[in-house]
Amino acid sequence: MTDPVAKLPSELDQLPDRDAEETAEWAASLDAVAQHAGPHRAAYLMRRTLQHAEAAGVPVPRLLETDYVNTIPTPAEPAFDGDEAMESRITAWNRWNAAAMVTRGSKLGVGGHIATFASAAWLYETGFNHFFRGKEGDGSGDQLYIQGHASPGIYARAFLDGRLTEAHLDNFRQEAGGAGLPSYPHPRRLPWLWEFPTVSMGLGPLSAIYQARFNRYLHNRGIKDTANSHVWAFLGDGEMDEPESTAALALAARERLDNLTFVINCNLQRLDGPVRANFKIVQELEAQFRGAGWNVVKSLWGSAWDELFQLDTTGALIRRLREVPDAQFQTYATRDIGYIREHFFGAEPALAELAKLLTDAKIAECFYTSRGGHEARKVYAAYRAALAHKGTPTVVLAQTVKGYTLGKGFESKNANHQMKKLSVDEFKGMRDLLGLPIPDSAFDGGVVPYGHPGADSPEVRYLQERRAALGGPAPARRVHAVALPDPETNTARAFQALEKGSGKQEMATTMAFVRLVKDLMRDKETGKRCGPIVPDEARTFGMESLFPSAGIYSPLGQTYDPVDRDQLMYYKEAKDGQILNEGITEAGAMADFIAASTSYATHGETMIPFYIFYSMFGWQRTGDQMWQLADQLGKGFIVGATAGRTTLTGEGLQHADGHSHLIASTNPASLNYDPAFAYEIAVIVKDGLRRMYGPDAEDVFYYLTVYNEPKPQPAMPEGVEEGIVKGLYRFKEGVPASAAAPRIQLLASGTAIHWALAAQELLAAEWGVTADVWSATSWGELRRDALESDAALLRGEERIPYVRKALEGAPGPVLAVSDWMRQVPDQISQWVEQDWSSLGTDGFGLSDTREAARRHFGVDAQSITVAALAQLARRGEVPASSVKEARERYGL
After folding, report:
1. Residue 816: CA count within 13 A, CB half-sphere
2. What is the pLDDT of residue 482?
3. How far apart are CA 340 and CA 336, in angstroms?
4. Segments making up each domain of the chain, as ranges
5. Residue 401 — φ and ψ, nearest 5°?
6. Helix, strand, coil share of the chain (percent; to 5)
7. Count helices and strands in the chain by DSSP H and E runs
8. How far lies 300's CA from each of 81, 263, 401, 787, in Å?
9. Which helix (H) or strand (E) holds 195?
10. Are 84-302+371-437+453-470 and 487-543+579-712 in the same CATH fold?
11. String of b and e for 757-796 (b: at least 16 CB within 10 Å)?
């Protein structure tokens, strides 16, 4: 009978076989093993051969999945560098105080999470005791992305080492008074402790990858020696379902980021139940990370399993562990020994024979508690292996029990994520399990006490000595106040070029902004700190001129001869390149921006990032990361280019942004501007540099929208700087045909000012109406100022909103227009004393010429004219018939 395997096509068939007889002998040997010793033995030999080939440097593809066992066998574990008994006591105190803090807070209804830290405690404690570098050495240390729901454990450790008090712990999730602890890692709320906000799941792993990449960027550009900085990202196995969690795995491997380690707490549970009820999440993640090019270290089983594996002479145990789905294994952790003997070991005769050699106590230890993530030596070995590995990032897959040490009411229960407290009796059981010296009398009144061995106890001294040896406390955030030179003096020429205008030459505001960035990058002192970031649209924005001069960052440099090498603006990659060109990933570009914008704290090196993107694909697509940017106190300029709903001709609905300013207005840290002219950009950026990087630096960032419609750029009028920054100034006053001529105020932002200027001429020439045209550079800043004025009034202070003062005495009604939804200018309507109306581009975008699109939305010059006449007619200042006549004349 012909072997059916031989009929299968193979890619090897197209390659010459120089010794077909030798090949046949190898195949025959494998067939013989499979026939006489079984297919599992054949598979074992094949894997041994592949491992040997890899170790010998033979180029063979790696397997994507290995057996469901630890990567590092117990005999191969390195010597443990510490006092394991002491660290166990420290961890016990931290487990207790984390649970006590949440339980005490639950009496006030503020909630909290207990089970996550309970399962991951050793993953953190081992790192804090042996691996995580503090900032007191090189100012950078390691970067720790803490799993958000584990925050109580981090607070408990800070309490043990003296950085927090009982009063702090009792204010967990009670921040209104100003002395509370935020629910999750939050630099804006607790800026001396937290560096990275991580509870918006998926953003932590994505940001960690780009932080590790940015560390290399700083190093390769000679800005900061980050060779010793390591990025540790602690994640949950359920969190890996978020698309952002795995979006940049290939980038990390491609750029050889061996300064990065993911630690995934595989407790097999997400918020509502099993992560992979019918499958195995560890195996899935292993294949995913190996396929992306990562080094994978699995730490699944505690030392109690060693005896079982030694008894498994047939491979039956390994096979069973691979086939049991996660939800069933979770069930084993909650059922009696008889159930485990029947349902796990009873699956095949070889396993049943093995089980006869095991005591009930051994089975209970293995299936209830013995996990790799619960033993300091296992975790230590995994972390040592991660740091020793070079050339690619590492992921540690550590298996744990969710709710470990919290008692049978918590451990492995589907609902434990929502369980916020333990009873007094459960705490007493936990105390006994952990061996803590807390007497029953400490529970008088039903209040769970905090526990502390004493400021001068061996535990606290040990903890502090370990941290001192590693460079100080962690996590910790440090801000080095290094102000950049005053833009008025150092980079004045860059701004003056835009303030002079372009004369008769037409220039889009997108191009004006790019020119400004290019000139800023030439400055001797601050130029190197400018970091242009773009998601594969640099040529769209006219940024290709930066390629040969600044270079595109690549850790490998340029290993090829670029196709456009003979052109002036060729595609130049360089190891010290300044531009971060991220490819088609706005999420990646935003992660880059966050890392750069917070470098002043992370590394004590101030950077000035400029992230330029299609405005439609900013706040709409990556708005969660803009909030992360605000949470992390980032500074810099995010620039929505090719902005507006009608300005990007031909692209249509999916590219037509008429709403980003509305979304941006919801973020308190975002200062949002919609400049109309190049000189306005110059004034705004200059003010931004002062506010974000000056002596009195603020924790804000700027959002600017710029357009791709070429227009002559006027020179800056005198005395308009304050109005530009605050959001409104009169650009062009109308000339009354007579003293009795009706008047109206036209407020416009961005490219809409050109339609307003055209409408100003139509109103004067054809209808005898005088219109003043105002440039509204920021509807959002006008609203912010007005809100602050309202708050001041409540405090008894007299304060008039800037928009009201600016328009004070301006005759006639106000008509606002922009290339945005009407809600954008309508943000300020309640503070305008004149009659208010607005025009905008509400609805979906569409593909057409600019003129047709503007007529469709009713925002072109003729539509503005008719709307102005209608507003005046309602006031009785022009005949109502004029409105009808204008509509007919303009074909509306």
Report:
1. 25
2. 67
3. 7
4. 84-302+371-437+453-470, 487-543+579-712, 730-890
5. -110, 120
6. 45, 10, 40
7. 36, 20
8. 21, 13, 11, 55
9. none
10. yes
11. bbbbebbbeebebbbbbbbbbbbbbbbbbbeebeeeeeee
The dotted CATH code for 84-302+371-437+453-470 is 3.40.50.970
Amino acid making up residue 291: G
> What is d(CA 225, CA 551) in angstroms, rounded to the nearest whole number?
20
Are 397 and 264 in contact by the 8 Å Cβ rule? The answer is yes
**C-alpha to C-alpha distance for 382 and 265, rounded to whole angstroms:** 13
269 carries a ligand binding annotation: yes
Instruction: Report the CATH fold assignment for 730-890.
Output: Rossmann fold (3.40.50)
Q: Please state, in angstroms and as integers, the Cα–Cα distance from residue 831 to each residue in 194, 786, 810, following that order.
A: 39, 7, 14
Instruction: Quote the crossing angle between the two packed helices 151-160 and 84-106, to the nearest 10°.
Output: 120
| The predicted structure's pLDDT at residue 524 | 85
State the pLDDT at residue 409: 63
Predicted confidence at residue 54, as pLDDT, reads 80
Q: Mean pLDDT for each consecutive 10-residue tract of the chain (892 residues)?
A: 57 84 87 86 84 83 89 96 97 96 88 89 98 95 96 97 95 89 95 96 97 98 96 97 96 98 95 91 97 97 96 93 94 93 95 96 95 97 98 98 81 49 89 95 92 96 97 94 72 88 93 93 90 88 87 93 83 93 94 97 96 93 96 97 89 87 97 98 96 93 96 96 98 90 97 98 96 98 97 93 97 97 97 97 92 95 97 95 96 92
Query: What global pTM score does this model have?
Result: 0.94
> End-to-end alpha-carbon separation of the chain, Å?
83
Specify the amino acid at residue 687: D
Q: What is the DSSP string of 114-157?
A: -HHHHHHHHHHHHHHHHT---STTTS---EEE--GGGHHHHHHH
| CA dist., res. 537 & res. 162, Å (int) | 50
Taking the C-alpha atoms of residue 11 and residue 465, their distance in angstroms, rounded to an integer, is 59
Identify the CA nearest to 753 among candidates 767, 772, 770: 772
Cα 152 from Cα 706, distance rounded (Å): 44
- Tell how strand 711-712 and strand 506-507 pair up: antiparallel
Quote the CA–CA distance of 578 and 593 in Å, as a whole number. Answer: 13
| DSSP string across 424-490 | HHHHHHHHHHHT----GGGGGGGPPPP----TTSHHHHHHHHHHHHTTS-SS-------PPPPHHHH
User: What is the identity of the amino acid at 577?
Assistant: G
CATH annotation of 487-543+579-712: 3.40.50.970
C-alpha angle with apex 788: 782 to 790, nearest 5 degrees? 105
Q: What is the pLDDT of residue 410?
A: 61
What pLDDT is recorded for position 417? Answer: 47
For residues 769 and 869, the answer to whether their CB atoms sit within 8 Å is yes
Helix, strand, or coil here: 788? Answer: helix
> For residue 511, what pLDDT is reported?
93
237 is in an annotated binding site: yes
CA distances from 639 to 192, 461, 584, 765 (A): 30, 50, 17, 38
- For residue 825, whether the previous peptide bond is cis, meaning omega lies within 30 degrees of 0, is no
- Establish whether 267 is an annotated binding residue: yes
Q: What is the CA radius of gyration of the chain?
A: 33
